[in-house]
Amino acid sequence: MSNAYRDDERPGDRQLELSIIIVSYNTRDLTLDCLASIALETTRTKHEVIVVDNNSSDQSAAAIACQFPEVRLIALDTNIGFARANNLAAKQAQGRRLLLLNPDTIVLDCAIDRLLEFADANPSFQLWGGRTVFADGSLNRTSCFRRISLWNLLCFALGLTYFGRRNPIFNSEAYGGWDRDTARHVDIVTGCFLLIDRLLWERLGGFDPAFFMYGEEADLCHRARSLGARPAVTPEATIVHYGGASDVVPVDKRVKVFKGRITLINRHFGWPARVIGQALHLIVPLTRWCGYGMAAALARNAEWQKNAAYWEAVWRRRREWIGGYEAKRVEPA
């Protein structure tokens, strides 16, 4: 990696442009591919790469150390979660900007260099993101979102987001109808490909460690906007994001996502909006369990029956997520 410095090679009289932070958990092959793409496609930006391995059981840490000795590896003996792991790495980072990058990503066409150029051209934004696609090149819409509101929660609960995926009114949270093909200000840049000024990160205190996984970047962006940041994304910086590689059980991922969303509501909604938001989340698995179940019975559709079973499992585990992460507070990393 020609532009990445080892600890003993880092110049003491100047700061690196960028610290790339990756948190891995049982994603060995994907992480190795991600690191290889960084080395290949990031040629114009002086940077370092820091990988925090959250006690993976697939020999991720050993493989990274062997194949990428120039990467600064922090191998943990316990899984401290996405938010705290990023905070831990950021404390050791040397770059004037931080790039949070998921391990299940592939950097395309100098995307990191291009994102830095976008940031340099728009420094007042303070927080930037790019465009994400799936492996087949189709759009992955999860690079950014609009903040949660009672309206988009209602649309989500009633299934209007499903039937109106491209509708900017019924699917406002996902910016329905916008293919991420223009540069635009957004409420939330997701943590799979998030660039932030180091000074802003430090003012914010990094991620709220109460979030174990999912929701932490929405909280960060909310607090950043309150300090004057204007998050924006550009299609000029495009990466592959496979999505959800650390969660092999879909229900487990949904439980974590709901837990994060409830925590966001608890943090940023006042009463009675907070109570309404929690109730709408309870409606989500019920409407889908009942809807898919009835449709499957009428049409004898095996796929719909699987969907019904999935949402039934989410409903039955509601006590795990309805309180958010509030019940188990953690100390900062």
From TrEMBL:
Occurrences of domain Glycosyltransferase 2-like (ranges): 19-144
CDD domains given in the database record: GT_2_like_c
InterPro entries reported for this sequence: Glyco_trans_2-like, Nucleotide-diphossugar_trans
SUPFAM superfamilies cross-referenced by the UniProt entry: Nucleotide-diphospho-sugar transferases
Leader sequence residues: none
Gene3D superfamilies: Spore Coat Polysaccharide Biosynthesis Protein SpsA, Chain A (3.90.550.10)
Pfam families: Glycos_transf_2
PANTHER family tied to this protein: RHAMNOSYLTRANSFERASE WBBL
Stated name of the protein: Glycosyltransferase 2-like domain-containing protein
